[in-house]
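Table S5 (text form). Sequence records supplied for joint modeling of the three-component complex.
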Amino acid sequence: MSKPGPVEARLRELGIELPASQRPLANYVPSVRVGKLLFVSGVGPMRDGKPIMTGVVGKDVSIEQAQECAKWCAVNLLCLARDAVGLERVVRVVKLTGFVNSAPGFGDQPKVINGASDFLVQVLGDRGKHARAAVGAHGLPMGIPVEIEAVFEVDEGPGGIH
Amino acid sequence: MSKPGPVEARLRELGIELPASQRPLANYVPSVRVGKLLFVSGVGPMRDGKPIMTGVVGKDVSIEQAQECAKWCAVNLLCLARDAVGLERVVRVVKLTGFVNSAPGFGDQPKVINGASDFLVQVLGDRGKHARAAVGAHGLPMGIPVEIEAVFEVDEGPGGIH
Amino acid sequence: MSKPGPVEARLRELGIELPASQRPLANYVPSVRVGKLLFVSGVGPMRDGKPIMTGVVGKDVSIEQAQECAKWCAVNLLCLARDAVGLERVVRVVKLTGFVNSAPGFGDQPKVINGASDFLVQVLGDRGKHARAAVGAHGLPMGIPVEIEAVFEVDEGPGGIH
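The corresponding structure-token record, covering 486 residues in total, follows.
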């Protein structure tokens, strides 16, 4: 068994074990890499194969609950990056786009997506700091409260990634 | 007249003829390339210059109808890639972001966007497999049911693209 | 004091003075660069630290007012590009994604985002022409009518950007 890298060790300290990745439910793939950029599909707050919560934020789901959802989106984004290139080759989280399933008049999308941003910085330090947009969606897959997609910068390595 | 490439031949087998591209209605351009990445503007289910359908999915528009819309979005994305670099230089569809004009409580955005994903894989094979996000919008241009934007990887060729 | 570059001179002709940048209110950064691509966070129509307007477009906010909001989003995107690399190193605006806080049935998102697109072309000429998507959001941060995120192509310079 290979020694866990520093990112995995940090995750352990935080009590997070990265689960096996979800398989996409449709005709698409978890991520596509072009050079140094890894484009990662939108993910929800899935845990053990199902959403930890569903509902509309500001109505059925509180900000605190939605932040927990955003954190689990970030966990799943890390899973997909691990599967694509390995966590030690993640140079940086470049960009998150966070969609919050919002009740009419809800305007705290940034607070919600902080659940993901704070987690990524906790795990990755400065490499976790990213550009970001947070917007209100009108419905998300399966009624999840939050969906987040990402772009990562990854290390191609001397001979590229194989 | 030049011989059609394999992608165009495959489109013909599927009974699809790529139309002439839509011109953007505003002060923007259909696509912009930076190196290997081609960023393609959001497109609707336009055919012969007008949307094949308008309305809200889950209310006015069924999932099957919305899938057909998503397919026509994908046709139009291919048109824009053809115009920018030629279809034979499309190395891969990297990423789709699919916006579904959703009724309250609608959560089948992934099924809808499958209309585009399935079509791209039918036409391009493995090169058509992409990362993806599917979210619910609250209103789309002209009331179209689906809008999809894309990033393609393209072959710059030995001397770059001219 | 260094001489203003041509972009700053053009802004002056248009009567626009780029303000000091807003600091992100959360655990993210204004922009992240990977090679030639600068990914800029979603920005609102902030001026002097607060939104010039809040409300839903098609209900509380007219198209003309929303266009002014979109223009101020573009001003703020330019600020962030200036802070990251300097305006003279902006090779091109590659892509805008414009989110319009939309009333039910509102379908003029493209007209609204034209407020940003027209402004960028006015300031940057052909370098301001970009790919674009315009969609309806259901709620935006603090109730702003418009949020826009961007990708810019930037000049890395002979020794890269320092």
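Note: The interface with chain B takes residues 24-32, 34-35, 37, 39-42, 97, 99, 101, 136-144, 147, 149 of chain A (CB under 8 Å).
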